[in-house]
Amino acid sequence: MPSSTVTVPLSPLTAERLRSRCEPELFSFETTAELEPLDGFMGQDRALEAVEFGTAIERSGFNLFVMGASGTGRHTAIEAYLNRLAGSRPAPDDWVYVNDFELAQRPRALRLPTGRAIALRDGMTTVIEDLLGSLPGVFESDEYRRRRRAIDEEFEEAQEEAFEGLRKEAAERDVALLRTPMGFALAPMRDGQVVKPEAFNAWPEGERTAAQAAISELQDSLRIVLERIPRLDKKRREQLRELNREFAAVAVDHALEDLRSAFADLPDVVPFIDSVRADLVENAGMLLPSGGEEEPQQKRADAPELRRYKVNVIVSNGHASTGAPVVREDNPTLPNLVGRIEHLQQMGALVTDFLLIKAGALHRSNGGYLLLDARRILTQPLAWEALKRALRNGRIVIESLAEHLSLLSTVSLEPEAIPFSAKVVLFGDRMVYHLLCQFDPEFQEIFKVAVDFDEEVTRSEASAQHYARLISGLVEREALLPFDRNGVARLLEHASRLAEDAERFSVRLGPIADLAREADHWARAESASTITDRHVVRAEQAAIRRLDRLRDKSREATLRNILLVDTEGTRVGQVNGLSVISLGRIAFGRPSRITARVRLGSGKLVDIERETELGGPLHSKGVLILSGLLTARYARDWPVSLAASLVFEQSYGGVDGDSASTAELCALLSAIAELPLRQDLAITGSVNQHGEVQAIGGVNEKIEGFFELCAARGLSGTQGVIIPQANVQHLMLREEVVEACAAGRFAVYAAEHLDQVMELMTGRLAGERGEDGLFPPDSVNRLVEDRLIAMARRRLEFGKQGERNSGGSAS
Question: Which residues have a catalytic role annotated?
């Protein structure tokens, strides 16, 4: 019989492999105060290249979508980069809204060179104030009064002339022209005196008839005269208006002279000034004092009727020294994005005008950069569609959410659209990006540049030095105490812990910054001048302490035997599996008992978690894989004739992931071969159909979870955890675990194959097939195969016996 290949036995990992330390000697500085701060990108070459490309290309649709996990410093790095870039670009034009004197419901938008919008607004205010002071003097001048008096006298003379002719004609015919409170009247007259009605009735009939005929004819003449009077008055008013225009034009032109000269180079502003002049000349009376002649009241420049001449500055870049705007809108509602039209309540009604138009983020960022959060804008009604329209059409149209939803029934404005040209930078996670790519056909046409931020960088001496400079920048921005080299080294170890990889640093700077702030707090509490590793460790422990109530409750339930987990002895078909529970900002390992039971059957492997709908798809996949491994490895020529069940004992919530498949297979093989397994060991790792143990996540938390339980019961020196060999590079265990392993009171084993795990768990060789196709006698694999063959034969015997019994009954 050929000798079998002996599997290399597992040995505990050395303490050096359980935590990759960052040596303080790596740094030449004493404290971070000596370092030049590093702001922006670290280890993000791919993202930096994308940002440089997206900001450099001046083509439509090449806006940026920045994706990555929160806390990676995306916002800070991108905003800092854009601020530096914007400083080298020219400031964009100013924009104002002004009244359209022909159609007030459609305010006009004017573009002005940088900084000149304020000058136009102030210039118009000065014009109105000057006219309020100068116009009353113009209309009170001697020349104006003389010419107005001449017009009035001309009217009065023409009117008197018309009535005088009628009066003479009436006198010749013994008829009097009388002015009464009701107007003009004609009455008979004798001897120069008006005849009273009773005397007139005593006249002979012939005289009365002649008098009435004369009065009738004169009434026609009176009507002609009275019809002529309004025409004369209309001529008088027209002459007065022309006089007012003539005198107002002199004052208005004088008031507008400086403004017209200051903006003569702007072809868009000159027509506006001309329209203002025409309206002021036509309506100069609005600027005159109101009230009676005895106590006239001087009008103010902010009078409601004078609002039409003001200038509404929407965007002014004159206050900025140089550079394009970088606008970050944290609340991208529709009004905050495209602007809004406000309303005032007057006499129970809502009124508005062009001065109540307010700018949005699109206006403020026009010609520069706009930073938005993808989730926030997607959850705001109509905001996402409005942004896409602005980018697609290159125009900013002010829209009202209330009007879209028919919630506002009042007269509003339709401001002229403003051209839009800016780089929009959208921040979101990868899921949002891919969902938009799949479900919004316009998204990829508008956001063509993806900026993908990595969550970790390779751990090296160079990256450690860069990280130290990042910490120096954080210290400077936050006004923290400086870190000494030991404190920096400890922070970098924490960064590796966050990355769950001893060969990587996490660049999720949010948690690192929080830890640095907490360490600063403890250092100041001790009146220390620098932050050391001791303060960082205390901050780590305090952060865990605040959130570990559920972890303590879970461990307490196990110590009180409410949750059954053995940490000593041996059991058949029973093994300790490890899972990770993540709750917000804390994750901890939880040992669980996994059991397997077998009996004669048809080859069905029952996953109780899946049958009860508590197992997720990945867990079910792991169970199916181990079922395939069992069949292919041990029952190549025989049908599998067992019925087996697997379960996570006392699991009352969902179970997912395949990290327990190695432990489940060990429990199943133990139950088949009736070999007891060690209970002082816990197992984690997935297994493939060739029996290779594969990497899993959360390895540090899983090891620490079983260690804490064993430590609470008392470390025996034989306890430990078996992990995949591929996970050794991820180990960043807490100090107490490393110290226990270094002292031989706990152990961590790394396995590459299932056979190594079974040898350690059973104390028996696993065995490999020899040239005869058989496993070595008394090996684990031989016992498993022999039991499966025996069960297959037993099932075959039952089948034959059933056929004989069936045949006997038939005869």
Answer: 659, 702
